[in-house]
Amino acid sequence: MKMSSAMIPLLLLSLVACQSESKKSKASQKSEEVSTPTSDGETSHPRLKITKKRKTELKKDFSNFSIFKEDINSYKVNFEAISGHYSNAIVECAKGHFDREKELFLASFDERGMKASVELSVSDKDPLDVEFECKVMDQDVELDDAKIHLRKSFVVSGIKNPYSLGIGFGPIETLVFEEGAMLLTEGVYLNIEAKEIISRGGEIVTFTEESTLKALDDQHGASGGIINIVTETALGKLSVQLRGKNAGKQTRVPEVMKEIPGRDAALNGTCRGSTDNYSYKDQRCFGKRGHQGFKGNKGFNGLNGGSSGAFFYKAKKLDDLKIKVDFFPGKGSAGGIGGEGGQGGPGGVGSVLHVKNDRGGIDCRICDQKSINGEKYKYPDGIQGAKGDLGDFGDAGEDGAADNSIVHYLVGDMKFNFNDSWQNF
Q1: Phi, psi of 148 (to 5 degrees)
Q2: How many Cα atoms are found within 13 Å in the side-chain-facing hemisphere of 163?
Q3: Residue 353: strand pairing partners
Q4: Quick one: how far is CA 251 from the chain centroid?
Q5: How far is CA 366 from the centre of its chain?
Q6: N or C: which end of the chain has fewer CB within 10 A?
Q7: pLDDT (tens digit, 9 = 90+) per residue, 271-329?
Q8: How far is 193 from 151, CA to CA, in rounded Å?
Q9: What confidence tens digit (pLDDT) does each residue in 131-165 have?
């Protein structure tokens, strides 16, 4: 049977449509399969073996430490075909979160269509966990896709606040301490969850020694807070200084003693009768000085020093990190000064004697005219008693406590509890 010339174009169009539908079907099939990350930097995928490793791995002797730090957030991600091949295809990766620069990371499969390697990097402005959406493209047809997750790493140099650096907000990949570097928490809770910690003699410090002395008046010393670290592995040497702040000066003063000793008859003059038997200087007739005022109130107690704070370290295995932990609880302050003593009590009443007409031995130059006319002489009253003594100083504040800390290695369940200077080397 002969085919008409009119049917040939229709047959060609049908063949092209079938090929197009085949590619679309393959693309549709891959979109239904989701890749999931596995341990050791490998991602499971039905048709691709995907592995990732840091662009520059740190050598055991630290000889490439500078380059390692520069490349710490750069990775090589390898794509290897498990079945079939990806000849003439490319890998195209982009960050899944909103990226204004819309940066693409590209790589081509080799001539056999079996392997491709793309370099991915995380920038300072990226979140702690960056998702890359990677596609295997054959011209304009998407053959496969995969999602790659990279966690950010941090290098600590100089003195840094962990939160301003970006540490403490979630899991990270690697935390590196340069020599002499310090994370200064200022007593704020710090939680570090890292896959790896590398320290070349770094420190984590709650408060500097100088800052512990700069206490606010009438304030208890601040606690060093909590440092919590969870990691898979670590190496190097790390010093932890748990310091509480000293207490501030007690400046409050108790109110003045208000109680006053009462009048005491024992302080009155003891002369009786007439002036014949007494001179005007006879002290027995004078009122005596009043009792001294009551002692002032005791001063307020000193303020308490801040506790050292606590260090909790948990590693999945017994690692090579040499840890040294020291405790410096804050000092309590001295008690405040006592309050002012109260006013002295009233003096005794001077004696009142009868005055004879010849005025006896009394020098009437000091007599009260009214008394003379009334034939009586009044000896002076005693003066008011002295002011009371200052109150005692308040009791000293208590020094802060050294909080219990724990280093725990999960393999072998090795756990160390301590609240005094401790090290594992």
Answers
A1: -115, 130
A2: 8
A3: 377
A4: 27
A5: 78
A6: N
A7: 999 888 899 899 999 999 999 999 999 999 999 999 999 999 999 887 889 999 999 99
A8: 11
A9: 999 999 998 899 999 999 999 999 999 999 999 99
H/E stretch holding 162 reads helix 162-165
CA distance 116 to 50: 10
Give residue 329's identity as a one-letter amino acid code: P
Give CA separation, 241 vs 168, 183, 202, 205, 223, in Å: 18, 10, 11, 5, 13
Q: What is the DSSP letter of 274?
A: B
Q: Is the pTM of this model over 0.90?
A: no
The residue among 332, 336, 331, 341 whose CA lies nearest residue 251 is 336
Task: Look at residues 51, 237, 253 and name the one whose alpha carbon lies nearest to residue 134.
Answer: 51
DSSP secondary structure of 109-155: --TTS-EEEEEEE--TTS-SEEEEEEEEEETTEEEEEEEEEEE--EE
C-alpha span between 205 and 196 (Å, rounded): 20
The closest alpha carbon to 138, from 118, 120, 113, 117, belongs to: 113
Structural tokens at position 338: 């006592």
Residue 15, helix vs strand vs coil: helix
CA distance 89 to 143: 9
DSSP-derived secondary structure for 325-372: EEEEPPPPPPPPPPPPPPPPPPPPPPPEEE--TT-TT--GGGS-HHHH
CA-nearest of 210, 253, 207 to 400 is: 207
Q: Using CB atoms within 10 Å of the CB of residue 389, give its burial: 0 to 12 exposed, 13 to 18 middle, 19+ buried.
A: middle
User: Helix, strand or coil for residue 327?
Assistant: strand
The two structure tokens encoding residue 198:
């590398």
Contact 121, 101 (CB under 8 A): no
First-residue to last-residue Cα distance in the chain: 93
Beta-carbon contacts of 87 under 8 Å, excluding residues fewer than 6 positions away, are 109, 111, 112, 113
Report d(CA 307, CA 329) in Å as an integer.
Answer: 5
Residue 359 neighbours by CB distance under 10 Å = 14
